[in-house]
Structures are given as structure tokens and as C-alpha cells.
Amino acid sequence: MQQQYEGYKDLADSFKSASALLNLERKSQLHQDIITICNHLVNPSFRIAVFGPFNHGKSTLLNAMLGNRTLPIDLIPTTGAAITVKYGSDVRTRIMLVDGTEIYRSGTEILQQFAILDGNRQMRKDVASVEVFCPHPFLETGVEFVDLPGTNDRDEQDNLIREQLLSADLVLQLLDARKLMTLGERENLRDWLLERGIKTVIFVANFINLLEPDEQKQVQNRLLFVAESFRSELPPGFSNLYRVDALLALRARLKGDVAAANSSGLAAFETALQNIVGVFQPNRGSVRLPRVQAIASQIQLSLKAKIDPIAIEIKSFDDKQNNKNEIKQKAADLIYKGFTTSIGELHDWLALPNLLTKYQADAAVVLAESNFKVWQTNTLKKDLTKLQFAVVKWLYQAYEFFQEERPQDLLISFPSEPQVILPSKPSNTDDLSEPGSIAVGGGIGWLLGGPVGAAVVGSISYLLNKNIQKQDEQLAKESYHQEVAKLCITATEDYLSRFSSQGLSILAEYEQKAEKVICFEVSQEPLEITKKRENLQRLQNGFNQLLQELEKVKILSNHQFYKEIPKYSNTNRKYSPQPKRVQTYPEKDRSVKQQQKNTNTAKNTGRKVEFVSPPPPKASHSPRKEEVEAKFRDWELNEEIARMKAEMRSPKACHQTSPSSQTSKQQNTTQNNKAPTQPKSQTEKDKITRAYGILGLQAYASQAEVKQAYRTLVKKWHPDLFVNQPQLLKQAQEKMHLVNEAYSILSEK
Q1: What does the alpha-carbon distance between residue 372 and residue 492 come to, in Å, rounded to a whole number?
Q2: Between residues 375 and 607, which one has the greater pLDDT?
Q3: Cα separation of 442 and 419, whole Å?
Q4: pTM as predicted
Q5: Using an 8 Å Cβ cutoff, are 367 and 442 in contact?
């Protein structure tokens, strides 16, 4: 039993916490009900309240049951306060005043001063509670009686009665057989009691002895109807209607007349009452919990009325912020993907093996022909500029989108031009400069004129295609122009090595700086929203705690637990899509470093190093299929970022809540998959039909199918795939012109 009361105490505490969260007015009905039910939950006594309109014999009935004139009796509404009758070794009274003063008196005469109405029929404002202690066996079992003021007199008294009834385990409703309640009065009483879960009600009819025998029979039938219509929840086998002639019963008890007491109905009523209490008292929770459930339902509805509007407002804010951040995050990821792809292509291009493969042969030739400066500007710089632009444009995309740090230009400069120191001239050679003459920037051409110069150029191609394994043995047999050609090759290798090393270093620094550009700030939420979020969390915690305590005492609820609301960062933070930095392209970097190491070793030791040249490139380079797909991916990324920019500028991006945002996405998906609207003129119809035919689609295919068909045809007919095939190149150009035109027509629809 003690454990049960501990559970009720926790439930009462959760009720009080919920009341504090609701910030209820102290005089409000719900606040008063909460205080009453909390006190009732932890009260170990079984409370029986006696109530009814004034002058119905409530005090008389109680005095008859107690066997003396304990309570005041008069023909006017005398009881001005709720009088609780408890067990005591002798009759005494305790008055509690509002200011905390306690007044103890022997007997009950003091009730005439504090517990009855004054001459103006007003209750005393200074009385908090009235208790009477009486040595009665029934009270000794832990039962308390509550004598309530008469109803239908004053609003203040009615409020007091309602409060006391809520804390009663059993209600005795006194009826005057001479003037039974009207149908409206019965329905009002029933509704009021049932709304508070008060279903343990017994009706006691008084004054039947004052009626004529014929009237008594009619009244008895009406009383049965009143009792049956209420449907009290009493133990099986017990009636909820009894007849007691209270005044006769009191007189009989005072005289000790057992027969008269029995004929008044008092004995039968007392026996039934004691048996009913005997059933209820061991498990009084079954009586009290319906009242708890009724009040808990009101508390939960009041809490939800506070919680739900705040929750909707915060969810709207979160959805709005998440929508904006989701777009920005997707854009940052796309931009970073494009940036890393472009910077990877530039990194590959700067790798020394790739530079040697692509440019060494042409560089050595133009060096021999005195055109190195022009070649550097028209070829090497042109290719570098194109790759640099592909990298930088992504950072400017990021700056335009996020407005973080303005990007710097990627500036990779060229090393000083190659220098060639000519060897000593052979004795049989004419028109050569003195040994040790230096030709800078492609000045060999004017030093090596005529057939000798042409021979040098020819030797460059020969040497780059030849794998020289035993240079020491063949050196003596080489012609002068072969020696000069080898010097040109070595000079360009050194030039490209310095260019690669310098460019990769600059590129690594530039990639680090890009982290400050491809990012955006996720700002902290406004203080007003933070306070509302904290308040909402408190309200939800109180609601969940109440629901949890109700479950412990087996009270079911139609409500569900609130989930913990998402927390929002209270500090500004950056989102950056870049992963933790690791060494990029390790295999290629090692290859470059090994090439540089070998070159440095040769310079430092003066030893000759074997030079194994890669095969020369073809005269004209034809793009691989992977390169065409890379271009197409680049186009797709640009298209997606442009779409997100437009979405960011749209008011919808700032005002969509989660459900509407989801609806919007579903609508967009539907629009992408549905056929275009019907054209108005026959000319438009023919134009669209031709466009579908060019893309190999059926009429009015979805936009998704149009885009996929365009993607497939671009990868198949891109002109870059046919650079070395003139006839197919022309066909591809014509085909792509038609494909682009068809795609434009269908995209506009």
C-alpha cells in the first residue's frame, strides 16, 4: 500500500509541475481541481461526502449515523463550510484559519461561530478548514465523512462543493422525496459529476415518511428512475438508492430505540454503506483514478494548446533554415566536385611525365628552330590558361553563391627559357660558332644554319624515338648534330621539370586557399526562437512526464509522447565540403619527384644519366571518350548550380515548410516526368514531332526521357571524337547541330 501511495505522490507532483507550466490563475477551476486531486491522491483515508440542496437533512443524517448531535442542525442553510468528520478518542473540533492559525476546542460548540452562515447568509472568508473528531467505530476503520454546505444557495458554496466532491471516494446525494429534482437538474448533476470521473454515487431519499401512502409509491418509482439513469459504478449486488427518514433515525438513535432506527431505513443503509466501503477501501485507486484521468485529460489538452502553436512555429523556422542550408550544401558539394575534377586535370597536366610526353618533342624542335618563345605563348601558355580558367571558374561560382572570401587568380608562371651550351665543333664542320657559345631562347637556329641545322632537327625526332641503352659506347660514333639534338632534348626536359615542380607547388597552395571560398556560414538562430525552443522543450517534458506517471498507475491516454525537438546550434559555424587533407595523387607525385631527383643528381655529380624517352605524341591529338564525358559532366554541374541559384532567389526557398516543401519537390518531379503541353498550331506540332524524331523518341515523351536521349547522343556524336576523321567529323558536326536544335525546342516546352 505504501508503494502505491509513493506512485500517487509522483503523479501528484507531475500534476503540480504541469499546473506551473500552464501558469494557471489561482482562482481558475482547473487550478483548483489540480490542487484538490493532488491532495486527494496522497490522502490515505476513505472520504464519504454528503451533499444536496440546503435543508435536505445532510447534517441530520450524519448525526443519526454518528449517534449524537455532533453537527449543527437548523431550518436555514446553517453549514457555511465543509466539515470533515474524522476518528478521535473524544469529540473535539479543529479550526484552521486562512492566516495559518489553528483553533482547538473540546466538543463542537465552536462550530456555531466558525462553520455556519452569518446573518447575511455569507461564508466566513477567514476559515480555511473545519475538522471534527469523533470516537465512532466506522470512522476508526479509516473512513472520513464530509458534511458539505447546501447547494443552490450561493456560487461560492457551489464552488466549494464541487472542490470537495472531487476529493470524495463515495458521494451520498440527499434527495427530498417531497420535491424531487427536475429532469434538467438531474442531467446537470450527472454531466458535472461524470466530467470529473465521479461515478461512485449513492442516492439517499429523505422525508418519504411525510408523504401519503399512495404518494410514497409514486415517488418510489420516480426515485428508481433517477437512480437507474445515473448508472453508478458500485460493487455488484449493491443498490445505489436507499430510503432513510433522517430525523426519525436521529431521534431513535438518541433514545436507543433499535426498532425505530430499523424502521427509518438507517440500519439497512448503514449496513450497505459499510459493505460497499469494505470492498472499495482496500483498492481505493479504482475509485480515485477515474477522477485523476478526467483532470489529467484537461491538463493534457491545455498543455497541447500551448505546445502545438509553438511547435508549428519552430518547425516552420527549422524547415526554412534547413531548406536554405540544404540547397547551399548541395551547391557546395557540386562546386567542390567540379573544382576537384578541374584541379585534378590540371595536376595531371603538370605532372612531368605527361608534360614530356605531350610537349618535349615540339619544344626541342622549336628550340632548335629559334621559335621557343612563340611556341611557349601559342601552345603551352594557351593550354595552361584553359586549364587554369577551368579551375578558377568554380571558385568564382562559389563566391557568387556564398559570398564568403573572394578567390584569387591562379597564376602559374613559366621558368626562364632553356639555355644550350654548344659542344666544340668538329674539324670538318663549317659555319659553327666557337666552342662554349651559348644559345638562349631558341637561338640555335642562327648558330646552326643550313644542312647542319636541319640535321639537328631531324636528330631530335630520331633520338626521342630511340631507346639508347649504351650511351658511353656509342658516344664516340655520334655525329655533331646528334650531340646538339641531345642538348636540346635535355634543355627542354630541364625546362619542363622546373615548370612542373613550380606549377604543382603553386597548385597545392591554391587548393588550400580554395577551402575558404567553397564554404558557407550556418548562422545561429535568433534569440527569440531560442527562448521559444527552450519553452517548448519544458512544456513537452512536462507533458511527457505526466503521461509517464499516468502509465505507471495504469491510466490509459489517447495522447502520444512528444519526441525531443531538434536542437539548433547557438553559434555560427562553417560548412565546408572538403574532406581532411591527404596527399593527393601519390603515385604521380612520386614519379615527378623521382624525375626531379634524377635530374638533380646528374647536375650535382656531373655524371651522365640514361634518358629513356617516352614515345612521341601523334601529330594531331584526338580526344578520348572519357574527355568528352568529362565535358558533359561539367555542363551538367553548371546546369544544376544555375538551377539552385534560381531556387535560392525564389521566395519559396525561404518560406516553405517541410510538408509544402515536400509537395513542391513531388510537383517538380511530376513536371519533369510528364509530357509537354500540347502545341497550339500545326507548325508547332510538326516542329516538335521532328525534334522527337531526331532524338529517337516517341511523341510527347517526358522531359526526363528528352534529357537522357540528349545525353546519349552527345556522348556518341561529339565532334571532338572525330578530329582525325574529316568525313565523320563533318557528319558529327551536322548531327550535333540537329540534336542541339531539337533539345532546345523540347526544353522550351
Answers
A1: 10
A2: 375
A3: 8
A4: 0.58
A5: yes
